[in-house]
Design a protein that fits this description.
The protein has helices spanning about 5-15, 50-60, 120-125, 140-155, 190-195, 210-225, 235-245, 255-265, 290-300, 305-310, 320-330, 335-340, 345-355, and strands at about 20-25, 30-35, 35-40, 70-80, 85-90, 95-105, 130-135, 160-165, 175-180, 205, 225-230, 265-275, 280-290. With about 375 residues, it is an alpha/beta fold.
Length: about 375
């Protein structure tokens, strides 16, 4: 590194301070995100020389020739004994910027992540598709890693992950785990899924569904007897199903709704909310389990009825986002103010706090 800015040392300090993301931009001081909040570090601004040196140091050989022409590049960076990082190299006002997402070596289980116990059920299916949704930085990749680790520990199966880039690295336990990176091991998510089906998989993880082609491939893999896990950038179960259906042309949507009704096993929408005491965040989760009634609503395009069903769905351990936030407040895990800030329906959540609530188990 240059004399002015030592990247590896800065990354080490950021990881040890529990930062989730590191932002480096020419002409600005380094910044980190901790507990969801961006913090500016009291250091000298990053110089162009610093940035050029960093880019030369960390960009993998296989995409070096694209640096001069690409506006965005995704890749991973590894600091042995510390952490992996998912890195995005972009341009801002014609200058390079780097954003590092911290990817721990260790993989946490459902309990350690404070995820609802009911999500175990999705890892026990033999086929179908399970979608983990939420905004950037909501813990989707971490939840997916816990699913893969659970299956890897419990079953004897072949798991294939298709990621851009590879994030959590798995070692074989009871399963054989094959990890493929888009751009290195396969040209695209679509090709990755297509060829995965010829590699005798039981479980396929698709890092992100960004377009109709990837969605189509994932649904077909689920239809043909495989269990598929994937992420999408949607905020709740109903929005997720709308997004899926609306990726297709109007004349195809009835067919797609039937396909989704048959293959979708459930959705987990996540937000990370700040703990009431100390550093760190808890996941608030909306969980939809696709029951025969939910299937019927999807086929008939009565998607708004699904939300009411989730509110009544404790027998399937379904839960709305507001119910999850309410339970976290009742348990003392987060504050009422934090819950209201995170809620997309603050009026309903206020009603819960006033006692207009059907009551559920406390936070676990």
């Amino acid at each position: 590194m240059s004399e002015n800015f030592k990247l590896d040392l800065f990354l080490e300090k950021a990881v040890k301070s529990d930062a989730s993301d590191i932002h480096l931009k020419v002409g600005e001081r380094p910044m980190v995100r901790r507990d969801g909040v961006i913090l500016k570090i009291d250091m000298e601004p990053i110089s162009k020389e610093d940035m050029d040196y960093m880019v030369d140091h960390i960009v993998p050989e296989f995409i070096r020739d694209r640096i001069s022409t690409a506006t965005d590049l995704d890749f991973s960076y590894n600091l042995k004994g510390l952490s992996r990082f998912r890195v995005n190299l972009s341009r801002s006002m014609a200058e390079f910027s780097l954003v590092f997402r911290v990817i721990p070596y260790s993989i946490s289980n459902f309990d350690k992540l404070h995820l609802p116990p009911s999500i175990h059920q999705f890892a026990d299916y033999n086929n179908g598709i399970v979608l983990v949704t939420g905004p950037t930085g909501s813990g989707k990749s971490t939840t997916l890693s816990s699913f893969i680790d659970y299956i890897n520990s419990k079953y004897q199966k072949h798991i294939i992950t298709i990621e851009d880039p590879v994030e959590f690295v798995f070692t074989d336990k009871k399963c054989k785990v094959s990890q493929r990176q888009v751009g290195i091991d396969t040209p695209s998510f679509v090709d990755g899924i297509k060829y995965a089906l010829r590699q005798d998989p039981d479980v396929i993880l698709v890092g992100e569904i960004r377009d109709m082609e990837t969605l189509d491939s994932a649904l077909k893999a689920a239809e043909t007897g495989h269990l598929v896990f994937a992420t999408m950038h949607t905020n709740d179960a109903v929005q997720t199903i709308y997004r899926i259906v609306n990726m297709y042309s109007p004349e195809d949507r009835d067919t797609v709704r039937r396909q989704v009704a048959e293959t979708l096993r459930g959705t987990i929408a996540q937000k990370l909310v700040k703990k009431a005491v100390g550093n760190g965040r808890y996941p608030a989760c909306e969980i939809l389990v696709v029951t025969p009634t939910v299937k019927d609503f999807i086929v008939k395009n009565e998607l708004e009825s699904i939300y009411d069903l989730v509110k009544k769905g404790s027998f399937n351990e379904m839960i709305t986002m507001n119910e999850s936030l309410y339970k976290l407040v009742e348990a003392g895990a987060i504050t009422k103010e934090t819950a209201l800030e995170a809620s997309d329906d603050k009026m309903e959540l206020e009603q819960f706090f006033r006692g207009v609530y059907r009551g559920t188990k406390g936070f676990e």
